[in-house]
Design goal:
The chain is of the alpha/beta class. It has 19 helices and 26 strands. The chain folds into 2 domains: 123 residues, no CATH class; 369 residues, TIM Barrel, CATH 3.20.20. The strands form 9 sheets. The protein has an 8-stranded parallel beta barrel. A 3-stranded mixed β-sheet has the order 11-13-16. The protein is globular, with a radius of gyration of 25 Å.
């Protein structure tokens, strides 16, 4: 049980009706008292959940157990003592299964340290608890001409690295096989962010890298209205933002997998006839509404965070056919989501991406991947891989483009690159942004390990010079990804670090080696066998994370990040 004598005063207070003087008194106390700080955070979340009368989820126990890292809870921790405290609150709470869900969720949140910054949470203006972002040297970023600037007017070029956070999800035995047999995407988007994607070691590693921004990728399902983990996911996101902010690193919140069609499930969907293909937020009204509502929710919760660089509203979108509205409905819906965000949050930048492809109209020619030839569209809505930026009417906008050029070289290691062609592609976008009203640009770029280290460095130095010449903000894709027998270590592998997350299922310790012939065969095919021997196997033990052969690549990035605008 908690020993602080102040706890009874907290139990009897009405947080929503505190005076400024009372708020300050509590604020000062919880700065130094961890027990009261945890209790106040627990009280806040419990009240919000119970007021909403949460729906019963028959899979609740399973989801909680699956989310818990068993190694982490072997030692006795203060969070388990909170159960006794919550017993004292039972008479004031509605008895329901949802209340039990709140208790368990609060235990997990306290254990993870979510409430450690609760000392800043008293908002005098509204007389209620709200998260703030005061302990940082960062200021809100805004656009000025073709530059991003701080509140002091200093030019700020994003020099960042992308955290994909395994947004695409995982193979789930039993469910993924069924989806695959139906011709659907078998990788299931997470309802809770995987623990391994951002650990204490990752924060320290990123801090020492020297970047000034992280692009923080996520999937829609984490913050979907019907996700029972949504509030806990939000608290984790805020905790990560605060952590990066304390390092003077901005966090750009980037939606990579919206509801409906996304760049990951499109690997299968693009081969389907347009009539049965999964629809996008630009074609389906339900998906569109979910997309808008998610951004309204996040904007409301993050609008006061100085450490947030801005919101990346969608990733690599595709415009529909002319019969479904074409580029005009694409522009309209981009404008609408920006407008809804601006009603709530006028401070943060909105990152608006170029479209990455479009659906062919009848009579147009497109390249068919299955036949490896150009064919005429006959209503099947084939995919035309062309890109374009579209102006939106909102203020404080940065336009985003991906730069993996030439793709055959960067991704597949085929051929070479031409510096003048690369510069021309960047210059065309720069001129477009200048002509529409001097808008800044952000690019996300990277090169895969299928190319030699020397070739990777040559390409990086070339594009870095181009980005500097045109004042382009840039983030390298990507910081870290999972590795294993079924993941290519060459083609399309851009990550600086690789983490062997599934080694327990793929490696036999006695005798030491791959657990089956099938795993060994896949590892060889994906060039993981050699990577495993060189980077992950250490005297018959497993070193789970490695920079591989990317140290020179990281040093090239660090040199780029240090250069002043």
């Amino acid at each position: 049980m908690m020993k602080c004598s102040y706890i009874d005063e907290l139990i009897n207070c009405d947080v929503d009706s505190l005076s400024n003087e009372e708020s300050e008194k509590i604020k000062e106390h919880i700065k130094t008292c961890r027990d009261c700080r945890n209790f106040l955070g627990a009280l806040m979340i419990s009240k919000n959940y119970i007021a909403k009368e949460p729906k019963i989820d028959k899979y609740f126990y399973t989801k909680v157990i699956n989310a818990v890292d068993s190694d982490r809870y072997k030692k006795s921790k203060v969070s388990f003592r909170v159960l006794g405290l919550l017993e004292r609150l039972k008479p004031a709470l509605k008895a329901s299964f949802g209340t039990l869900a709140v208790f368990v969720s609060v235990i997990l949140l306290i254990t993870s340290g979510v409430f450690d910054n609760l000392g800043n949470l008293i908002d005098k203006n509204k007389n209620k608890i709200s998260y703030s972002d005061e302990h940082t040297n960062l200021t809100f970023l805004q656009t000025k001409g073709q530059n991003i600037v701080t509140e002091d007017g200093e030019i700020f070029n994003i020099r960042g690295i992308t955290l994909t956070n395994n947004f695409w999800g995982n193979w789930v035995n039993g469910e993924s096989e069924k989806l695959q047999s139906e011709g659907k995407e078998p990788i299931i988007r997470p309802l809770v962010q995987d623990e391994w994607v951002l650990t204490e070691d990752d924060f320290e590693r990123i801090k020492n890298m020297g970047c000034n921004t992280v692009l923080y990728d996520f999937n829609y399902q984490l913050f979907a209205e019907d996700n029972p983990n949504r509030e806990a996911n939000l608290e984790r996101l805020k905790q990560h933002i605060r952590r990066f902010s304390s390092m003077d690193i901005y966090t750009a919140i980037m939606l990579m997998a919206p509801p409906g069609l996304d760049s990951a499930n499109d690997i299968r969907e693009k081969y389907k006839h347009g009539s049965v293909r999964l629809k996008s937020v630009f074609e389906d009204d339900t998906y569109y509404e979910q997309w808008v509502n998610m951004w309204k929710y996040l904007a409301k919760e993050l609008k006061d965070f100085k450490g947030v660089a801005g919101y990346g509203i969608i990733n690599q979108p595709r415009t529909p056919t002319d019969s479904e509205g074409g580029v005009e409905v694409f522009r309209e819906r981009l404008n609408n989501v920006c407008k809804e965000i601006r009603k709530i949050d006028k401070k943060h930048i909105i990152f608006v991406p170029e479209y990455n492809s479009r659906e062919a109209n009848p009579g147009e020619s497109y390249f068919d991947d299955e036949t490896q030839s150009y064919i005429i569209d006959n209503g099947e809505q084939g995919i035309i891989w062309e890109r374009g930026l579209v102006k939106v009417d909102s203020s404080n906008v940065v336009y985003l483009f991906h730069f993996f050029e030439p793709y055959n070289f960067v991704n597949d290691g085929i051929g070479d690159f031409d510096a003048s062609t690369l510069e021309s592609q960047v210059k065309n976008r720069y001129e477009w942004a200048k002509n529409i009203g001097n808008a800044p640009l952000l690019t996300e770029y990277g090169i895969s390990r299928i190319n030699s280290v020397d070739k990777r460095l040559e390409w990086l130095e070339t594009v870095h010079d181009i980005f500097n010449k045109y004042g382009i903000s840039a983030s390298y894709f990507q910081y870290k990804t999972s590795v294993g027998a079924y993941i290519s270590m060459k083609t399309g592998f851009n990550a600086i670090y690789g983490e062997y997350t599934d080694w327990r299922n793929e490696i036999s310790l006695i005798p030491f080696g791959f657990a089956s012939e099938g795993i060994a065969s896949s590892a060889k095919e994906n060039h993981f066998s050699e990577a495993f021997e060189e980077y992950y196997r250490k005297n018959n033990t497993i070193e789970t994370i490695s920079i591989l052969d990317n140290q020179p690549v990281l040093e090239s990035l660090q040199k780029f990040w240090k250069q002043k605008p």
